[in-house]
Amino acid sequence: MEVISLIFVFTIVAIGIYTDLRFRKVPNKLSIALFIAAVLFKGLLYGKAGLVEGFIGVGAVIGLMLPLVLARALGAGDMKLMLSFGMATNWSIVFWTLIYSIIWGAIVGVIVVLLNKQGAALLSGMKNIVMSKGKTEPSEMHKIPYTVALFLGLATYVVLKGPEFSLGFGL
């Protein structure tokens, strides 16, 4: 059953990557459909305890990502996608995936900037953030499709967790 769960969770993230790369946003209709699918999936596979665990995962997403969205460090579409992810997994997987995705986001961001030969713009943007005490307008910052970093964060979590990996009952 864990293989099915793992495929489902990676599918949620893969759908997010596709729409984020293609349209540069995650539409509300897609977010709602994925969330409903995650509720049904978690309920059918793990029952009432799985649903409780999923809603705790949703709470973790809100608690961890809402400040980043309000600070405009992440887009609301990324958070909406992660609500489905949180429902399909648990708070621990949400936490570690976000930690790893922040690291991957920084790595991917630097790579994109260097490939586009915008190193000076990156340094200028960092200076603006420091000088304005974090009140830089989003248009002044470089943006990357964060769903790619989320995918890499999840993959890192799964690889590091190894045989102990489990999507169910990690309350």
Which structural category do the helix and sheet elements fall into? mainly alpha
The number of helical runs is: 6
Which percent range describes the beta-strand content? under 5%
Please tell me what the overall shape is: elongated
C-alpha Rg (nearest Å): 17 Å
Mean pLDDT: 84
Distance between the terminal alpha carbons, to the nearest Å? 18 Å
Give the beta-strand count: 0
Q: Helix-strand pattern, N to C? A: HHHHHH
Sheet with most strands: none
User: Could you name the ranges where pLDDT drops below 50 across 5 or more consecutive residues?
Assistant: none
Question: What is the helical fraction, as a range of percent?
Answer: over 70%
Overview of the structural elements:
The protein is mostly helical. The protein contains six helices and no strands. The protein has helices at 2-23, 28-70, 76-88, 91-115, 119-131, 146-161. The relative contact order is 0.17.
